[in-house]
Records
---
Amino acid sequence: MSESIIKVESLSKKFGNFNAVDNISFEVKRGEIYGILGANGAGKSTTIKMLCGILAPTSGTAFVNGFDININPEKVKERIGYMSQKFSLYDDLSVEQNIDFYGRVYGLNFKEQKLRKEWIIKLANLTGRENSSTNDLPLGWKQRLALGCAIIHEPPILFLDEPTSGVDPIMRRKFWEMINNFSAKGTTVIVTTHYLEEAEYCNHIIMMDDGKIIASGSPKELKDKHITKTILEVTCNKPIEAFGLLEDQNWILEITIFGFHLHVMVDDPIIAEKEIITLLHQNEIQVEHIAPITPTLEDVFIYLLEKDKIELQNA
């Protein structure tokens, strides 16, 4: 089994009376793609910033590549790559000038700088655009350039905070191909995202809500552990109306809307399928397709949030 390259121990961060991160602990193995998932405000970015030595914890600590973030934050920064939510590129500099700047920051010599610059320009598909203003680049290209600058010094650990936010699905897939390539070469990647379908690419995931870890495991482990009932996917012509009718039925355990589809968690799928078709037909809603499906991570996350909400209400 791979050794742990990051160990987080009872880490917390308060802003006044607000617990942004609340006593979390976890470990990341060397070479893993490790996902931190949650909605906006869940504590993902604050966790990343503490692990990068940018924010000091209120309590607890973490060891990143052997260095305590409380004692040696500058040593941590030297050994990681970090791509923030808002791109850390300089819009008033050209593509080449941005790469040169980051190369100098990380202390590359002339030969290293030249080789890495060529690699980044190829990686970002910016050949012929070296003198273009960074501000004029399309979002996806700017994103790849920012990633290249973050790893110009070939760090063993790469932190990516919402790296695919705001880009189209095709560019998002290409970006994840790059992440997988880095991992295959031994780089440990810690990535935050609120796109739960992206989490399928991760080796291990923690799900966060209100600063706490509510679940941890591989995508398969999370599905197998938390979704033990059948989920029916229902496609119909009036999904919003159908949702309103079905959510009040006591034989439905959980229901979520996904565009024109409903995901309905039930105890007995055979009986439930008949009941759903009958109820929707009685209300002049046409069922186009209904069948059991493999649960998604979004199903897991929504289930856990609802479960947490019910437990808080009953506490």
---
Amino acid sequence: MIGFLRGKLVLKAPPLLVLDVHGVGYEIEAPMTTFYELPALGVEITLHTHLVIREDAHSLFGFATEADRAMFRTLIKVNGVGPKLALTILSGQSAEQLHRCIHDNDTVALMRLPGVGKKTAERLIIELRDRLPQLEDSITTTATITPSVGNAKQEAVSALCSLGYKPLDANKMVQGIHSEGKSCEDIIRMALQGAIR
């Protein structure tokens, strides 16, 4: 499984983008919510990825945030929702907006998405409602695509999450830290010292 890719953005042609990772060009399909976050061509970025292997194709999907990838993985488990429809759904709504629709039983908002009829909207709500508690932690993350250079803050947030902090709390811990010239380890140390006080 390919968990993430870090490389230079060389092509943006929604829903396809190409990332140059050490001379290998990865074709990645991404939702429009990810495209809105992309920087200019030639900038190095990190994408959270999900690989789908089928008899006729290997497809790589990329996301700006861990929350979007978690929602994508949850969507493709719903009966009748494949990777393409899941990508379309996430192109029309962020993971947080979709979470809200499911929580509020808002079939009308879901039916506005391309490819989602009344039955699919109802199925999404019924099948995802039980999974909402597991999704809440990943939805609260506010991380977006940023250039990898100077990405120490984002790496520190991920590390703090690995240590057991909730994404929202981890973001708050590093938010006030002046990160210029500091390594990820320095930021983590300062964040933890601030949490102890």
---
Amino acid sequence: MKSLRDPDCLLTEGLAAIRQQFKVPATFPPPVLEAAEAAARRSPSEHADRTAMPFVTLDPATSTDLDQAFTIEAAGSDLLLHYAIADVPWFVADGDALDTEAWLRGETMYLPDGKAGLYPPVLAEHAASLLPDGPRPCFLFTTRVAPDGAVRLEGVERALIRSRAKLAYDSVRAEDVAPQFDELARRIAAAENARGAARIDPPEQEVERDAAGHFTLRLRPLVQSEVQNAALSLATNLAVADALYAAGTGLFRVMAGPDARAVARLRYTAAAFGLSWPGAMPIEQFERSLDPAQPAAQAFMLAIRKAGDGASYVPYQPGVKPWHAAMAATYCHMTAPLRRLADRYVLRAAHAIANGQPVPLAVNEAFQRLPAVMAKADARASQIDRAVIDLAETATLAGREGETFAAVITDLGQNGARIQLCDAPVVARVDAHSVLPGGQVRVRLDSSDPIRRELHFTRVS
């Protein structure tokens, strides 16, 4: 899971069991590796030379599969975001071994001890990655960002770029990026607030061992550069989504807002963490009021992430406006083609419509098939994420059997009451009668089994 780090490999045995349970591939079939080696030698021949433009990348320090690079320039009161996206379609052809394997995987699968990539490393972490060790082919998107944060796609071309630097979130300096970087991120955030968007940036969870030898979960909020960098991707995705919808094509990311039951459960969770959520305040407004530096707010942001039914993909349908509730906008995915299958096809469609060309038949056909394939991949990724969280939660409570904990009832069901521990980001179930959601209880931990990822509590009061 990308939001859970295990830098000291404290969960090795449990993670190995998760990989086996969910059949996470350890490598690629030999024909796919051979195809990747051959594709990596393919020289770009349909790309404009944009190597003089001052592109940089900004990612976690250890990342090598770099999908995006950027530079920004002023255009009167507007800003022009030049956003380079790895040209994966240049290396992967419809129906070849790489394409066939990607359709089986759907997306890169992340675990704290490593990932199972969508494409072999020779492409994803070398030839197709926008690394600063030579010219790289890309789709170059130019998006105009107005003072109020409104975005419009100005153009798309295939280009060669040369990244000036591989920057890291935790060490980037203001002088390392375009001087308009902060202002562009501010404009996008202002537009989100004006739309009533509910997008949140949950903290990372890190597993550590304390002085007593127990596992602990430490929450680390995203640093400012991560949030600002996400604004660049958001701006481009929004602009592309609008252009695709206007052209009557595309694949969109949609999501409904949390239903009344989920919101009620979140209110009880907020109470468990001691957060004051006024009764008349909408969830979107409450989310924006949270201080990501506060541990209780960090834990609640993770609870919000787990509360929804999740997003899905839909192809263009005449007369139907695709909508993503968290973004409060029409939205698409296309900025991470090294990690998501669907992005490769949205890139091709956006390039075609921006240049007055018909969208390739293979792309339009893919838009009809991709929702089911991506739903399966997303479901698998969610199951892995849930298993990793369960592993971390059980590991943090291992050795504390017999202790009692304060908890709040967040929901009731056939399998018992769902509880949120008040002093830890742990959700579990307990057999409890004559209780209502929002009620406070004390529970005793009877057992914690990290290998089976099971917690058993008994209500004591």
